From TrEMBL:
It is a single-pass type II membrane protein. It is found in: Membrane. It comes from the Eukaryota. It comes from Oryza glaberrima (African rice). InterPro entries: GLCAT14A/B/C, Glyco_trans_14. GO terms for cellular component: membrane. GO terms for molecular function: glucuronosyltransferase activity. It holds the Pfam family Branch. This is BGGP Beta-1-3-galactosyl-O-glycosyl-glycoprotein. Its main location: membrane. Keywords: Glycoprotein, Glycosyltransferase, Membrane, Signal, Transferase. The lineage of its organism: Eukaryota, Viridiplantae, Streptophyta, Embryophyta, Tracheophyta.
Length: 422
């Protein structure tokens, strides 16, 4: 049964008397009730921190996405933007609390009660991402990677697959699709200035465009996604701490600059990481998403359907986008790839309950530190290894040509792991 504490915590987030703030319990109160059973950090499998974002009408999609990526080892923040109603947020919080007993037992899911505007092209969406990252650092300071997903995304591997494969990857690495070759987009993406009304006007999601343009910056190099739009990233905790705590001035300087550009989420993290001497040599030029594009590419990838199934699964990518709501391909992924059925989470090695038509095997659990990868995990391992090798030897990365001893050691470890069977 879901704990009363968890339900009260969700209601506290939803009905905070101070709308601009997310009221948080102290670190001790936020600790999972089963913390002694869960190991994170050095020597343990990685723990992942997810931000799942959606807009008005996306509550059911976020719940489905949560259950598709749920694992007791991970931490989750769910954010419905300000255009969604309070009743939608209350419904989502109630659905999450009732979804599976593990959510209440491990207290690893939070629903944002005072959302940001989420203006599609403005800086309020970036503010929401940074805020969620700060919340995850406050509530759960022991995770290893921060993963952003949208309601139109879906996993193509189980969490057992992903956690197992990432166990063999250095936690120094960040996965960001990036390029400094802006080309013809320079005038629109770099020099144009806008003001996001959602930052200072409640309930507004529009923006205002400045009549003048500013020069291309020369104090730092501007990076954005190689694809037409790549705001989705997988970043390690050290880099997130660098962006939030800012012991150097670079993250703050770039944040002020990106406050007034179009689509800042498509360039902020990319530019910070590639201009940082500390982090750029550990940047993999891949966002670990499968996408299909029109020819020539448009501003968004095409919606995936049954015709994309074979290529998507064979790619080995852990995530795919974009999906329409209730797309039948999602049911096929659930049944053939994730092994998810009914309304519960994807079963993993942590689930010890009896599997039947009327019971959820994940309603009971054993050791949550054990993962058991499946066949898709082999493809994922090959996909990750290719991405790392392309970053090591390729020129399409912001890494400097200097290869540190640690990178060379890691490469040897990856080659050894590629010969290890799942």
């Amino acid at each position: 049964m879901v704990s009363v504490f968890f339900l009260l915590s969700l209601l506290l987030l939803l009905f905070s008397s101070s709308p601009p703030r997310l009221r948080l319990p102290g670190p001790a109160a936020a600790a999972p009730s089963l913390a002694d059973d869960l190991r994170c950090g050095h020597g343990a499998p990685p723990c992942l921190a997810y931000l799942l974002v959606g807009a008005r009408g996306d509550g059911a999609r976020l719940l489905r996405l949560l259950l598709a990526v749920y694992h007791p080892r991970n931490r989750y923040v769910l954010h419905l933007s300000a255009d969604a109603s309070d009743s939608e947020r209350r419904d989502l919080a109630a659905w999450v609390a009732a979804a599976t007993p593990a959510v209440g037992a491990f207290r690893n899911v939070a629903v944002v009660g005072a959302p940001t505007a989420g203006t599609p092209v403005g800086s309020s969406s970036l503010a929401g991402t940074l805020r969620a990252a700060a919340v995850l650092l406050r509530l759960h300071p022991d995770w290893d990677w921060f993963i952003t997903l949208n309601a139109a995304d879906y996993p193509v591997v189980t969490q057992d697959d992903l956690i197992y494969v990432l166990s063999n990857v250095s936690r120094q690495f960040n996965f960001v699709d990036h390029t400094s070759d802006i080309g013809q987009k320079e005038s629109e993406k770099v020099q144009s200035m806008i003001v996001d009304a959602g930052i200072y006007l409640a309930g507004r999601t529009n923006f205002f465009r400045a009549s003048e343009k500013r020069p291309t910056p020369d104090a730092f190099k501007f990076f954005t996604g190689i694809s037409c739009c790549s705001p989705w990233v997988i970043l390690n905790r050290q880099f997130i701490e660098y962006c939030i705590l800012g012991w150097e001035n670079l993250p703050r300087i770039l944040l002020m600059y990106f406050n007034n550009i179009m689509l800042p989420q498509e360039g902020y993290f990319h530019s910070v990481i590639c201009n940082s001497l500390e982090f750029r040599n550990f940047t993999v030029n891949n966002d670990l998403r499968y996408k299909a594009w029109d020819n020539p590419p448009q501003t968004e990838p095409v919606f995936l359907d049954m015709t994309h199934y074979d290529k998507m699964v064979d790619s080995g990518a852990p995530f795919a986008r974009r999906f329409r709501e209730n797309e039948s391909l999602l049911d096929k992924i659930d049944g053939n790839v994730l092994g998810r059925w009914g309304h519960g989470p994807v079963p993993g090695a942590w689930c010890s309950g009896r599997k039947s038509w009327f019971s959820d095997p994940c309603s009971q659990w054993s050791d949550v530190n054990i993962v058991r990868p499946g066949p898709q995990g082999i493809k994922l391992r090959q996909y990750i290894n290719r991405a790392l090798e392309e970053g090591e030897f390729g020129s399409k990365s912001c890494r400097s040509k200097f290869i540190s001893d640690s990178s060379m050691t890691l490469k040897a470890e990856l080659r050894a792991s590629s010969n290890r069977s799942l």
